[in-house]
Amino acid sequence: MSQLTACAFLIGLVIFTCGAAADSDGGAQLIGVKSIANNLIVKGMDVTVQYDIYNVGDKAAMNVQLEEDGFPIDYFAVRSGFQHVRWTRLPPGANVSHTLILTPLQTFVFNASHAVMRYKVSDEATGSTVGYTTSPGEIAVIETADYDRQFSAHAMDWLTFGMMTTPSIIIPFLLWYASVRKYSNLASHSSRKNN
């Protein structure tokens, strides 16, 4: 029974693929990837969002627009780049990239959803085609103090450690040095008397 189900699934997939290929008019087809370059998102530190748009169709995409409305101004400040970008033409087989640098203003858990791509599939097309980039998913913005606690050099901690351990190292060294000087002086006096 499972072989029959698998066979029916494959036949359905082939029919769907052939139908989709017949429906495509050979115009531009864009694939958008939205990614966040940072491993950790920290309040007050820059976040780099990278957009890559690829034209996998056989015609140039015209009037390509990227619209990012997923970063509200109450939660993020734009440092560099634009949330709405436009390219006049994207040739077949080509790609474009855009970088947006933001700074989180608060700590919160945030759902980074997709950006919207609008474009014309050819010069002759009258309407725009709408596509979406990939979505990075849920992102947690952490507090700066938590980040510093985990990743700072802990200079004050090491300085305190050094100050606390110095007496336990210096005092025995001074006692040893005093005894070495005392006994070396006695040894040199006794060797002079023997000669």
Description:
With 195 residues, the protein is an alpha+beta fold. It folds into two domains: 27-151, Immunoglobulin-like, CATH 2.60.40; 153-195. It is 36% helix and 34% strand. The chain is built from three helices and eleven strands. It has helices spanning 2-23, 144-151, 155-194; strands at 30-36, 41-42, 47-55, 61-67, 76-80, 84-90, 95-104, 109-112, 116-120, 129-132, 137-142. The N and C termini lie far apart (110 Å).
Outline of this structure?
The chain is of the alpha+beta class and 195 residues long. The protein has three helices and eleven strands.
According to CATH, what is the class of the largest domain? Mainly Beta
Please name the CATH architecture of the largest domain.
Sandwich
DSSP summary: helix tally: 3
* Element pattern in H and E: HEEEEEEEEEEEHH
Structural class: alpha+beta
Number of domains: 2
What sort of overall outline do the alpha carbons produce when their principal axes are compared? rod-shaped
Largest sheet: 4 strands, antiparallel
N- to C-terminal separation?
110 Å
Could you tell me the strand content as a percent range? 25-35%
The residue-averaged pLDDT reads 86
The strand count comes to 11
Radius of gyration: 34 Å
Helix content: 25-40%
User: Spans with pLDDT under 50 lasting ≥5 residues?
Assistant: 12-23
CATH topology of the largest domain: Immunoglobulin-like
CATH superfamily of the largest domain: Immunoglobulins
Which strand order do you get reading across the main beta sheet?
1-3-7-5
Q: Give the oligomeric state.
A: single chain
